[in-house]
Amino acid sequence: MKISFQLNGEQAELQIPGDTTLLGALREHLGVYSVKHGCETGECGACTVLLDGAPVNACVMLAAQAHGRSLQTVEGLGEHPELGWRTTAGLHPLQQAFVATGAIQCGFCTPAMLLAALALLRRQPNPSEAEVRQALSGVLCRCTGYLKPVQAILRAAAVLRGEAVERIDGRIPAPPDLFAGPEADAPAAGRPAAGPELATRTSVMPQIRVAPETEGWQSVGKPEVKVDALKLAQGKPAFAADLEMRGMLVAKVLHSPYAHARIRSIDVTEARALPGVAAVLTWQDIPRVVYSTAGQSDPIPGPLDTFSLDSKLRFVGDRVALVAAETEQIAEKALRLIQVEYEPLPAVLDPGQAMAEGAPRIHDEPEYVNFAESDPTRNLAAEIHVDIGDVERGFQEADLVVEGTYAVPKVQQTSIEPHVVITYWDEDDRLVIRTSTQVPFHVRRQLAPVLGLPLKRIRVIKPRIGGGFGGKQEVLIEDVAAHLTIATGRPVRFEYTRAEEFGASRSRHPMRFRMKTGLLRDGTITANEMHCLSDTGAYGCHALTVAGNTGHKSMALYVGDGAYRKSPNLRFHADVVYTNTPPSGAYRGYGVPQGFWAVERHMETIARRLGLDPIAFRLKNAVRAGELQPFSTSWSEGREPRPETIHTCGLEECAQQGAAAIGWAGKYSDPQWHQVKGSPHLRRGIGVALVMQGTAIPYLDMGGASIKINEDGSFNLLVGATDLGTGSDTVLAQQAAEVLGVPLEDILIYSSDTDFTPFDKGAYASSTTYISGAAVVKAAEQVAERIRIRAVRMLAKEPGDPVLPEQIRLAERRAWAPDGRSVSLSEVALNALHHEDQEQIMGVGSYVSPVAPPPFAAQFAQVVVDVQTGAVTVEQLVMAVDSGIIVNPLTASGQIEGGMAQALGYAVCEEMVYDQDGRPRELDFRDYHIFAAQEMPDLQTLFVETFEPSHPFGVKAVAEIPMDGVAPAVGNAVLDACGAAVNEAPITPERLWRALRAAGQVDGSPS
Ligand code: FES
Ligand code: FES
């Protein structure tokens, strides 16, 4: 059919099939790539456009419904401020505000948020925060926690009203008076109060206790604008799916309807005969190569137990066949024409039964490759036994022993951009894989044997990524498109639907715990033991390493006190079992959030039983600077452990400052505060959890970087590191800028392409700022040294005393001698490239760390509990974090806010459940609820800087630690509010209602 509409003020005409969605018409027919695909059911809002000025979801509208109407997308909003000789009015104030405030992380939701905000501001120029949050309620963001987007919209509204707004580019205030409590009169640093000339304030900067070592730094420590913010605010085609190629096919996968089955026969004759079908592949058509989908360094620390296609199916959603066709509709029709005769097998869905005698065996393939303690005959993907000190003696010496059981569910990363890949042969017959991945170099290495190609014939390109959170630390779908490109010779695009994301991608390992802790009456821990049963699902991706980190980080925090502190007694045992459910994998925190749910709920129980202050009890037993990370002596991701000393620990100050910020002292022990006036069914509670993480994987994971100078004194920085939206490109460039004495805009960073950028293990284990950052600094120092040597030669031609290279200071784009003489970097570059003794000034750095310095944090939560219904409302989350030096306060606090928002779902609502046949209950954002803007509590981030000596700028990790403490802090706050202990997350109304009933707080029985 033929339709026409106004698109951003221009007339658009289309000849399309009548069932084309508006999303499909805009992206595939008109190249409007700012409109994103995040689901197919109108729930994520990524496809938001303005139809006659009102926001609508383009994925659930037919294009025909737009006929004769007016559409606006972000392509029609603002312009680039300068392009060559042509200058324009520049960005719209909304775009400017999103860029300036750090409201853009991955940027996948940004165009939708901008349009929702635009519609709001047109009808309400002076909105309240609640109105802004309501306007954003239809756009889900998994990265930001919504704080900065909301602030950005309030700021833009102020600009549009003609009001002044404050700058967000100042240096971080110095100590000592930063951390006044909430009652203090003075405004907290980074949160300027509204003055008479400033009617709207922007609360996007965290409070920071600044380390003195940062004095005089120019770029590191500044709230620099993200280097990719501009293009993301403009909705430019930066993501994996934003690429059109002539003759590109669409891939689809036939998924198993059975949790456990064999394929008796499969007939694809009809599907192959369907016009428009280019290829149909089954397990009989491709080489049988066993591998692991876990994106990890060589050798993979886990079993090899996966095939691209197999004749045995191990979960509902496992792959049966692959199709490539001219259109999505034809590919889907072809799937329905594939005839499969299945032989259903008994399935095991419960991890507790997986190792039982007679349980169905999930992996019986002869190609299975064992790693460490895996034993497929017992459905055991991994087994861990760590014993430190003498645990039994510790229990014997205890005055009391406290035991408890705890459980956490399977939850999913749910990046708003689904997994998506495009593959094609280039002109040299090399296979190009353009994919949304956290691990491009692992994708190349791990897929080469699977595809039957030498590694050198594969090139992996990582464009912008719409969030990953560990879900893309997996070689999950690249092989599907690659097999089909090999089969057809044509480009292939494969993108998961949201239902496939839920049913056939990865998730966080669900775990069950038994805790046992020995204590003296004064609260000294004499021994601590955790047993963990982890469910890896049908395949053992990340099975060993996730469970290992559960113990390695969470059980390492409490070592005991006195003599026990010198020689802690700790035990961690884990069984990681296969079940016929979708595989688990890596998810931000990597096993540690699971462990801290058990440890911190258990510590709360102990503190209350002993009548001790929960913060003082924890700090008494917590590990301190100068002590060994106790697990470093016994376990290291399946490799040889090497002892590591913790050099910096700001935990005690985090606890103090976080407590002050939330007003702990005035709330925790005040019975009045726990009442809600006029609402006897409501109770208030406050809770705490202390947590630690790691920074990278020592002696294993490597990051690389190269830097070269250009004639204008700018630099190309190439890194293999992958920015998932976290801002890592920005903080890496900031570190280069600091060494080279240039503003951030002079560092042109590119990441990552396996053909052009140096190797990097990828984005995981909270390692990029630390590992890749150290590599960048090494490369930059090599460049700086060459610049200094050449500058000395150039300055020698001018009158003045001779100078040595080490006396040259790089700052303000110049090389300075102590006496004030200087040459610009542009002059140095021209001299090097064109004039004298020519050379390309260039540096290459790589870095592997011998340590994994832990960041620490104190997480606080305030809740209101309805004791009649079991409903929990989280009112406030405060997190005080020691992540070493904060390279960029905007991006770092964005990580904390977004992490807390994800962890909040873990606390109260997110959970993946399967029926008795192994079919998933959650297949869309209706059933799997993630927090929306209008549902969020108040979020506050504090940084307590310490200078980590193992890094040139003193940094530690920031990305994962916000996942660790929210759930137990909320659980502890619920206990504080109503006395009910919910030891299984999430704390749903039903679970709390049952716990309240068990605690004698409510009557009746469930309906
Ligand atoms: S609401 Fe349309 S893509 Fe999700
Ligand atoms: S910035 Fe919102 S989904 Fe990533």
What would you say this structure looks like, in words?
Strands 11-13-9-20-17-18-19 form a 7-stranded mixed sheet, sandwiched between helices. It has a 5-stranded mixed sheet with strand order 2-1-5-3-4, sandwiched between helices. α11 links the parallel β18 (431-435) and β19 (458-461). The chain is α+β, with helices and mostly antiparallel strands. Residues 37-39, 42-47, 57, 59 line the site of one FE2/S2 (inorganic) cluster.
Strand order of the largest sheet: 11-13-9-20-17-18-19
Average pLDDT taken over every residue = 94
SS field, number of helical segments: 25
- Bound molecule types: FE2/S2 (inorganic) cluster
Give a short account of the largest sheet.
7 strands, mixed
Please report which band the strand proportion falls in: under 5%, 5-15%, 15-25%, 25-35%, 35-45% or over 45%. 15-25%
CA(first)-CA(last) distance: 52 Å
Helix content: 25-40%
Number of strands: 34
Question: Which stretches of 5+ consecutive residues score pLDDT under 50?
Answer: 174-178, 180-196
How would the global form be characterised? Answer: globular
> Over all CA atoms, what is the radius of gyration?
28 Å
Classification by helices and strands: alpha+beta
